[in-house]
């Protein structure tokens, strides 16, 4: 394999990983904090992409859409948490069922508003530039990598350096004691849920110029981010990064050798095998 | 629900006989379309029964039952279009049970023996379903890709020297009815046996069951395998009666429908599986003929209803509502023996 091809594949893997981290961060925060599996998380991703579509069709630029998407996602997240999830905190199976129901309704809602035809979103950074003089790589994908790093760093900052982050980590560690120490766990939940939802929506908006925007586009990212959270350990932010690198990297690697279908199947098999031997995740704790 | 007195036992048998008589007489009164519809209800009922065993009795929620159904259906599809000499129906039914069971054993070994339970297990079953559907679509030589497999040999009964393909709607209906009754009796016997009681224990508190000395991973594995075989049987039956299979059978949508069927009918009641299919599938049929795209949203609504309004199934909900209304008329204090329902989650 030539250096150009290798570099291209590596960059492909990194850009997929970047998107995956953003989507999985939201899921991991919600799962780690509240033990809640949000099956509608994929739809939050989709909503973000469609927010960009809507902004575009109303004449707004890419940047307007990218700023709008997380806001829409956060609002939807708050509605979801207050309306459905908050009643089901001690009942994980019911949460799965209820949020799955919401995801079906959301999918239909999106289809109803936008139709089933794939929507195209203009690429704000068309063209390619030379990377290290070795190969020409699409500018937009490089932008995604940079954006992913920046946003992930910002999320880490919020969780490690702010007071909210401290409260959130306390709740993740031990819900009851945190509440006993006077932390308003209810408010932490809503805020964290909104953050997670906003991140997923942002990821969807960022992804939109690269792929066909369809009502069902979130489903495959939902599955992948589940793997990331399972492998990386729930509630562990570094685990999300590690898990995303693993999943994104493996999928990209396998898809160069075989078809994308086989690649995804293989990643699934590996995930199942890893779970068999390390049920708490590879990077937990 | 255990029936205690002899009188209640006799009443139960009488009720069963009446229901069976109605089911047997049905084709005489229904249009061909509705007979096919009821046949499908029975086959899907067997499918739902398999999930009720796994989820309702053992407490293991799987979004992957359609994977087993699909494997059974495609096993019959492959066999039914390539084998001419022996009776393809029998081979297809056999493979339709064995292949999914094998997958279940492999999955179960990796997951149950790895300590994967609860929500992690459920999520992984979603992934399995997604991947299997992808494979069904892309492995075109074996599965016909998006077009599926046509022209599967019709359901055929045979003995040495005699072969009788069944193609009439009434004949297929009776075939499905016979299969449904047999499967129900088998699962009911299993659930009422000591094996079934261990399953209920696992559902209620797996750790305590383990401490009592039971190898819960093994019990879960066996249950998954049996559930897979039954689901696969339903799939193979479906393929041989409809003579056509497509990748939707592997899909996540189908997997979530069977969950709603079981939840609406009453998780763990076994008979509720058939009731749930009847109610939800009929609703789907009516709504889809009215508006082709509305059904998924209605399905989503059902999920929410099942969680917030009738967690024990619609029958239990209506019965409870009926009792509440009745007790208001009889001045309360009415001790009803039939409300001795097992605590369900």
Give a verbal description of the structure.
Chain A has 285 residues and is mainly alpha-helical. In chain A, 74% of the residues lie in helices and 3% in strands. Chain A is built from eleven helices and two strands, in the order ααααββααααααα. In chain A, strand 1 and strand 2 form a beta hairpin. The longest helix of chain A is centred in the N-terminal third of the chain and has 32 residues, at 3-34. The radius of gyration of chain A is 19 Å and the shape is globular. The model of chain A has no long low-confidence stretch (mean pLDDT 86). In chain B, a hairpin with a 2-residue loop joins strand 1 and strand 2. Chain B contains 14 helices and two strands; from the N terminus they run H-H-H-H-H-H-E-E-H-H-H-H-H-H-H-H. Chain B is an all-alpha fold and 345 residues long. The interface between A and B is large, with 39 and 42 residues.
| Low-pLDDT residue spans of chain B | 333-341
Q: Work out the helicity level of chain A.
A: over 70%
Distance between the termini of chain B: 15 Å
Helix segment count of chain B?
A: 14
Strand arrangement within the widest β-sheet of chain B reads 1-2
User: Largest beta sheet of chain A, briefly?
Assistant: 2 strands, antiparallel
Mean pLDDT of chain A: 86
Strand content of chain A: under 5%
N- to C-terminal distance of chain A? 38 Å
Structural class of chain B: mainly alpha
Low-confidence stretches of chain A: none
Major sheet attributes of chain B: 2 strands, antiparallel
Give the neighbour order of strands across the main sheet of chain A: 1-2
Helix count, DSSP H or I runs of 4 or more residues of chain A:
11
**Estimated share of beta-strand residues of chain B:** under 5%
Largest Cβ-defined interface = A-B, 39 and 42 residues
Extended strand count of chain A: 2
Write the SSE topology.
The complex is a heterodimer of chains A (285) and B (345).
Chain A: H1 3-34, H2 41-57, H3 62-83, H4 92-114, E1 128-131, E2 135-138, H5 139-161, H6 163-173, H7 175-180, H8 185-207, H9 218-232, H10 237-257, H11 260-277
Antiparallel strand pairs in A: 1-2
Chain B: H1 6-29, H2 32-57, H3 65-82, H4 88-112, H5 118-138, H6 140-143, E1 156-159, E2 162-165, H7 169-192, H8 194-204, H9 206-211, H10 216-242, H11 252-265, H12 271-290, H13 295-308, H14 314-329
Antiparallel strand pairs in B: 1-2
Helix pairs in contact in B: 1-7, 2-7, 2-10, 2-11, 2-12, 3-4, 3-10, 4-10, 8-10, 11-12, 11-13
